[in-house]
Every structure is written in structure tokens, then in C-alpha cells.
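Worked Example 4.2. Consider the chain below.
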Amino acid sequence: MKKTIALLTGGTTGEWVISVKSAATIAQNLDPDKFDVYKIMLTKQGWFYEPADSVRIEIDRNDFSLTIKGHKITFEGVFIAIHGEPGEDGKLQGYFDMLGIPYTTCNALTSAVTMNKGYTKAIVQDIPELHVAKSAQIFKHSPYQIEQIKKDLKLPYFVKPNNGGSSIGMSKVSNQYDLTSAIDKAFAEDTQILIEEFITGREFTVGVVKLGGKIIVLPATEVETGKEFFDFEAKYTPGVATETTPANIKDDTRERVVRIATAVYEKLNCRGVVRIDFILGPEEGDFYFIEINTIPGQTATSFIPQQVAAMGMKLNDFYTALVRETIG
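Applying the procedure from the previous section yields the following C-alpha cells:
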């Protein structure tokens, strides 16, 4: 029996562009012999299905159903491909939990907590072999002492919105007099921001997934960019960054990455596929946790499809296994 799956895309942030591309990759690689897939677009204007031969049809949000030509369609599961709000921050997960509809991502609590970079670091910081950068967390509508931050943290700093992904609103500050404008830029994206000490080293990202009840750490990718840091442009503009999958690291380093990434996945009670960004210090030394993405990009050039290929697995088989693990 084929499962009827809703593939949820769009969103209410600037990341919706990437979400649409991710959904296209997923739709192309979900086996039509196993799944009936309905791509559902979520925007600020509404939630709707847009068949090729008809006008858009609104979703009934009372039970997340669709009525086409008098026939009501309900879904056995939801593949959530929305990056940022409301797909990655727990809101949709809570909605589907209340309706009793399974989905492919982390649960509502994990999704909400991991959207907050500061809270996430507080949870993972005692994992063996893992380090976190020294940081300060400040709130837009609460007083903070900028001079105290300058005393507590060493230059250069990374200033970033505490919630959200894709490096939107992020700045690297090398001169203390630029800190105020960097804070203003981050506050334009979020009401909480994180100011971190800059960590010198090589930047990596690694996918982690549970399939068949077993946690699997995918081959890591090294990211090199001529820009100051791996920002939105470097992530999504071809040629700006060089990505090497699998990363060229020593065998014992690779084993350490697997241990730490597995521990992070377990400690945060993750589900489905996530992506962990980290920095290795000089000489492949200390492992510094940067952040976790609980709905990583699935565009044709995204890290997860690259890493799945490097593991020797077809994307079609990967998504089938992911749906079976999370939706049943």
C-alpha cells in the first residue's frame, strides 16, 4: 500500500527560497511506487496545494486535509522541508502532534530549543571532547553592557541572531568600534543575539540521521571560502565556497567526529536527519560546536545530498528509509 505524504515547503522567512528548492529535490527522489506525494506550500497568505491542472486548493487546518473535486484527502505523514520559522522552530511539530500526524523531523521541544543557539550550546557543552566558544547572549528589550562584553570576550567576535539559520544577519567584528553596528544588524533579524569569540580553524559540517533504529554519521564536508565566513551568499551562490566531501581528515579525527556528533544527536534527543556545523582547531585539535540545523537543506548542491552520495547511498533510498523511520 502506498503512503499518502504531504511534502511541506515554503515558510514565512527569507529561507523559503531554499525550502522550495529542497522540496523539489525531495519530490524528485521520493519513490512514486511507494508514496503519493502532495506538495503543500505554506506562506503568510495561506497553506495550499497547487495542482498542475487546477487553481490552488486551500488546506483545511482543522485536520490538515485537502478536498479535491469532492474527495477528501488525509495524510499518513508529513515530510517537513521548511527551513526556519515555522518549520524548524517547533511550531508545526506541535500542531501535527495535536493532530496525531507523524512527521520526519525532531519533535517540538527539540526543534524549539535547537533554534536558539545559546540554549543549544548550554545543553551540549559538557559532552566529552566537545568545546564551545566563549560567548555572551543579549536581548533586544533588556539592558546589556556593551563595555562589559568587550572586557569579557576577545576580538574578533562573531555576532549572530540567536534564532534562525542560513547565516542571515551575521557579522564578523575585528574592531571593537564596529560591535554596535553588528549588534544592530543582528537585532534586525531577531530579538536575541549571540556574541561569540572567533575560533581559528577549519570549518566542517556533518549530517547525522537515525535509520533502522541506528544513529548514522554521514561523511563530513569541509567548507572553505574566500569570504570572511560562511555566510548566506557563500552557502547558496555557486563557486563562492569550496566544499570537499568526504573531508580530508585523519582517521582518528574522523572517529572523534563520529563520537561527538552521535553524542550531540542523542543529548538533544534528535530525530530524522540533522546537520552539525563545527570547527576543528589547528592540527585537527579541539572540536568546537557551532550550531545544529534540524531541517538541513536538501537542494541538489546541499551538504546532505553530497554526504549521502559519498556514503554510497542513493538519495531515493535515503528518503525512503527516512520516511519509514520517522513516519512508519
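The two ends are 12 Å apart (CA to CA). The chain is about 30% helix and 30% strand. Compare this with Example 4.1 before moving on.
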